[in-house]
Write a structure and sequence with these properties.
By secondary structure, this protein is mainly β. The chain has two helices and 17 strands. The protein folds into two domains: 94 residues, Sandwich (Immunoglobulin-like), CATH 2.60.40.1120; 90 residues, Cupredoxins -  blue copper proteins (Immunoglobulin-like). Keywords: Signal.
């Protein structure tokens, strides 16, 4: 069923982007259930990247980080506005980017530059259940899977590319990859099945 849905989506994508070069990816868990919020990123074989780091925004609202998963290119700046009625104390102990923003409201938090590839876990010292993830990648070709577990990423030219898929809840932090040859003007496809950890009861209630 999942594969038929994927094929149908690819048909729509192909009609809307005829002649474009890119890769369409479907992400599932080991049982075939689709996986939203999976980071998919593509690296040109040989390591060439290009692109320009941009900016992103992770707000605090309803005692949550929104979005829970963010992906940016190395060197990007992220802003952390607090749109709650209470103050937050956000932080990260992750090696890819450590910071500690004391209690604040509104726009007072300093923008953070994420200049090292890796995974950053965000937390709040006041509200323990607040958690979010930032994936920093050395490529401008990236996206998150949608509610159907689907991703489409356009590429500047045909060639050999390495496609990687990352989800915050995979067993052992697995980031599987596939090498694809993409022809100019065509849409290559890939399917990833990720090994997932069981969802804790507390997490399921969030």
């Amino acid at each position: 069923m999942q594969y038929r849905h994927f094929a149908f989506c690819l048909g729509l994508v192909g009609a809307a982007h005829a002649g474009a070069t890119g890769i369409a990816v479907q992400v599932q868990d080991a049982t075939g259930k689709v996986l939203p919020d999976t980071v998919v990123y593509i690296e040109a074989e040989g390591g060439a990247t290009g692109g320009k780091p941009g900016t992103a925004l992770i707000e605090q609202k309803g005692l949550k980080f929104l979005p829970m998963v963010t992906v940016v290119q190395t060197g990007a700046t992220i802003n952390f506005p607090n749109n709650d009625k209470v103050r937050h104390h956000i932080y990260s102990f992750s090696p890819a980017h450590k910071f500690d923003q004391k209690l604040y409201s509104g726009q007072a938090a300093s923008p953070q530059i994420f200049d090292k590839a890796g995974t950053v876990v965000l937390g709040c010292n006041i509200h323990d259940k607040m958690i979010a993830y930032v994936k920093i990648v050395d490529t401008p070709y990236f996206a998150k899977s949608d509610g159907a577990g689907s991703v489409r990423i356009d590429l500047p030219a045909g060639g050999k590319y390495v496609v990687k898929a990352w989800h915050y809840n995979t067993v052992g932090g697995a980031t599987p990859e596939q090498v694809l040859t993409v022809k100019a003007g065509e849409l290559a496809t890939a399917v990833f099945k990720l090994p997932m950890k069981p969802i804790a009861a507390d997490d399921a209630a969030l």
